[in-house]
Amino acid sequence: EEKQVESLIRASMKTPGKKAGVKSRTIFFRSMLVTAVAASVAFLILILTPGPTPDKLFSNFFKPLEDKILVHYAESSRGEVQTGVQFYFAGKYRDAVDMLAEQLNTDDPDPYISLFYVLACLEAGCDENLTNILTEDFSGTNKEVMSAISWYLGLCYLNQGESESAKDILSELVLFENPYKRRAKKLLRKLE
């Protein structure tokens, strides 16, 4: 009798065990299938979603009001230049453009006037080709000002949709120590 009970217990234990094993394998394979499908969908979304547009990158990196070099110049400038720069920092971009434009057409262009004119034009939505202004010969200008001009020239190119020209300018900017080096590297990575 004990042998019969023992064999009945073993038989009853084997049957549910097999069913539980089949059930657990089915659940495992279903969960793996769902995970694989979810990973594939996520991968396709990443691949098919375009990167940031030049407009979006421009708006993310164009922050002249936070630029220490420009703010320092605004605090130390005098005379008519100061008025145009003050208009710029007051958000009166059209007035800044008008004031600074008068001083652009000289035989010896001031790099700061050129830079603030371009910045005011960008803010005011001018349609002129601003890159020509920033590519003038500013020989004798200190490295800090030249790095600011290069940074904003790269952003001008980006704003005009000329990503390759922007990359060229930014690539030069990361070759030496300057206040824009870190931002230029970051922007270059996003342009790749």
Largest sheet: none
User: Which structural class should the secondary elements be placed in?
Assistant: mainly alpha
Radius of gyration: 32 Å
Distance between the termini: 80 Å
The total count of strands amounts to 0
Helical content class: over 70%
- The unreliable regions are none
Shape: rod-shaped
Strand content: under 5%
Secondary-structure element string: HHHHHHHHHH
The overall average pLDDT, rounded, is 80
Number of helices: 10
Task: Give me the secondary-structure topology.
Blueprint: H1 2-48, H2 54-61, H3 68-76, H4 79-89, H5 93-104, H6 111-124, H7 131-134, H8 143-159, H9 163-173, H10 181-191
Characterize the structure shown:
- With 192 residues, the chain is mostly helical.
- The protein has ten helices and no strands.
- Helix 5 packs antiparallel against helix 6 and helix 6 runs parallel beside helix 8 (143-159).
- The longest helix has 47 residues, at 2-48.
- The mean pLDDT is 80.
